[in-house]
Amino acid sequence: MTEKLFYRNPYLWEAGGTVLAVEKGNKSAKLLLDRTIFYPEGGGQPSDRGIIAGEGFRVLVEKVYGKDDVWHEGKLEGRLPEPGEPVRMVLDAEWRYENMKNHTGQHILSAVFKELYDANTTGFRIFEGCNKIEIDYPGELDWDMVLEVERRANDVIRRNLPVQVEVYEELPEELRKNLRKALSERVKPPIRIVSIPGVDVTPCGGTHVRSTCEIGFIKVVRFYRKSRKLWRVEFVAGNRALKYLKELLDDYWRSLDGMPNKNRPLFERVGELRGDVKRLEAEKDSLRRELWEWKARALLDNAMEIGGIRVIAHLEKAPLKDAQAFVVHLVDKNPNTVALIAGENYVIFAKNKGVEGISMNDLLREVLSKTGGGGGGSEVLARGGGFRASPEEVLELALEELRGRLSP
Ligand SMILES: [Zn+2]
Question: What is the pLDDT of residue 185?
């Protein structure tokens, strides 16, 4: 059993201890200690980081876990320690202190959600970027409601209230009735009750700051419905809140600076830009149609006649999708016309639907039987690719086939 010094004093950033057991990993080690200042992951609070050092070795602790026996895992530098050796523990104090601020901030936020909307917190997790809580609220949550919670939570912070922890072997009935969150059957004594006078009383196994003003401030950054009854609320607190808001503002100003018009608000500038894109798209479409007209005219001028039908054979540079859009347009607008188009790795055969006596799919299948490759289509439009022949050869084969079928 490891003695948990972080419960006696959560501000203990350094302490000595003794190794009880060691497990060797690949360039890493796991240490079981007789006492620890490292908080093991649990209750939404991530595990601590830091260094455990002894004579001739250091473990750079990245993961801490275990309920009664607390194991410390991380990269090993130097020799493998042995059971019985003394060690010095040093926490990543900033990481832990910010976790304490954000965790205590969650207590306050959850308490205000409960007080204002009778909404229970069913989940909580601290992340390096921001924290996430799940709120059980079957109705519609809106920004006015959330901002009221935020305002009251920040009032609690400013009032500089103490955060008190009491430990019970057996919970007094009076206290049990006042808990924000009913005690889970799974929680075995000793039971830690964390209270902020007049605000919150709740069982909790995490680490907390001593007074609310240490949290600095709380900002809800967004919220959304997670399921029918649950809402996810994301918030930041402590120095992490400043870092988060700095990143958000950097992003905001860089985006605004990238606009042709750099005046706020950004969402109006985005609206203008979207309008511009829409207008340019329409202009592009109209120019493309005009280009198609000219291109069609040039191709028709050079068309050959086979059995009384105008046949266009054209080597195309455009990608398949664009080429197909053009060909469909071309044969639609011009009666008595067949178009055979070959690109880098495709062919498109298309005909005006009034042309009789030849199916584009049959034509393609005939060509494929000589060149290999695959494809298919309908009476009026067929596409293929993967030939063992050049685009010129494929066109030549298709023309030969057409002549055979259409010439009297
Ligand atoms: Zn807590």
Answer: 81
Mean pLDDT of 256-285: 96
* Ligand 1 midpoint to CA 207 (Å): 6
- Residue range 303-406 in CATH 3.10.20.280: no
State in Å: Cα 43 to ligand 1 middle. 8
Cα(163) to centroid(ligand 1), Å? 10
Category of 149 on φ-ψ map: left (φ > 0), alpha (ψ -120 to 50) or beta = alpha
How far away, in angstroms, is 103 Cα from ligand 1 center? 6
Dihedrals phi, psi of 341, to nearest 5 degrees:
-120, 130
User: Which fold is adopted by the domain 97-255?
Assistant: Threonyl-tRNA Synthetase; Chain A, domain 2 (3.30.980)
User: pTM to 2 decimals?
Assistant: 0.80
Gap from CA of 10 to ligand 1 centroid (Å): 12
Euclidean distance between CA atoms 55 and 58, whole angstroms: 8
Query: Percent of the chain beyond pLDDT 70?
Result: 100
- Taken as a whole, the chain contains a residue count of 408
Nearest-5° Cα angle at 385, 381 to 390: 115
- Return the pLDDT at 32: 98
Give distance in angstroms: CA of 17 to centre of ligand 1: 26
172's CB contacts (< 8 A; 6+ apart) are: none
pLDDT of 408 higher than 80: no
**375 and 385 in contact (C-beta within 8 Å)?**
yes
Instruction: Give the whole-angstrom CA distance, residue 132 versus residue 184.
Output: 21
Given a contact cutoff of 8 angstroms between Cβ atoms, the answer to whether 201 and 180 are in contact is: yes
Fold held by 3-91: Elongation Factor Tu (Ef-tu); domain 3 (2.40.30)
